[in-house]
Specification:
The chain is an all-beta fold and about 220 residues long. It has no helices and 22 strands. A hairpin with a 5-residue loop joins strand 19 and strand 20.
């Protein structure tokens, strides 16, 4: 979207045919569109022109994340995460190990990568500069992992179809605690700058949790 005039946005068609399933932007004025046809379309947000198409996945692109250096990470239904150069789109590596679709991912400031999957696990990987080695597998959820978020205090939060948000140590992967209260699948988890944790669920609620001790702060019912 561009050119706001009196509250109206001017639409620009960036991709046709396939369905856009994920988006990410980079500091280089680039927009990445993940599609259900397994490709990633790359566009300039300045000129609205198509720059390139990234190919390699064989399943729907479920999530895209842009790293601090412009490197782009794509999670796919083909069970892998692929890593791409933000400069020229070249393929930098593939994270393979999950046994079902990868739904979500998060990238730390040190380029450690966290991936969540339909196999109910979270896998932790070293930076692609360090060979993208598997560090550990976090187990404990009883359903697919829909969302991952990195906390301000060194914790990792995972939202799952098992109705819970689990809290993990980013240092050693140990399980710190479980945020319970939702009655249906938790589909999104985010962490605010002050460490407050927010989770949304198919139960129609948004819950707020303390990032300090995990205590429940409030529950908001979504209006129909």
């Amino acid at each position: 979207w561009a050119g706001y005039t009196h509250g109206n946005a001017t639409p620009h068609t960036l991709a046709g045919g396939a369905v856009v399933t994920s988006l990410a932007t980079s500091l280089s004025n680039t927009l990445y569109c993940g599609l259900n046809d397994s490709t990633i379309q790359v566009w300039s947000t300045v000129t609205n022109t198509h720059l390139r198409t990234l190919e390699g996945h064989t399943g729907c692109v479920n999530e895209l994340v842009s790293g601090k250096d412009g490197t782009v990470y794509s999670a796919s239904g083909d069970t892998t995460v692929r890593i791409w150069s933000g400069k020229d789109g070249s393929h930098l590596g593939t994270l393979a190990g999950h046994t079902h679709a990868v739904r979500c991912l998060a990238v730390g400031l040190d380029d450690t990568v966290y991936t969540g999957s339909d196999d109910s696990t979270i896998r932790v990987w070293t930076s692609w500069r360090d060979g993208s080695r598997l560090l550990r597998t976090l187990e404990g959820h009883a359903g697919r992992v829909w969302s991952l978020a990195l906390g301000t205090s060194g914790n990792v939060y995972s939202g799952s179809a098992d109705t819970t948000v689990r809290v993990w140590s980013a240092v050693d992967g140990s399980h710190i605690g479980t945020l319970e209260g939702h009655t249906d699948e938790v589909n999104v988890v985010v962490v605010a700058a002050d460490g407050t944790v927010y989770s949304t669920s198919d139960d129609g609620t948004l819950r707020t949790w303390s990032g300090r001790d995990g205590s429940a702060i409030r529950k908001l019912e979504m209006e129909e």
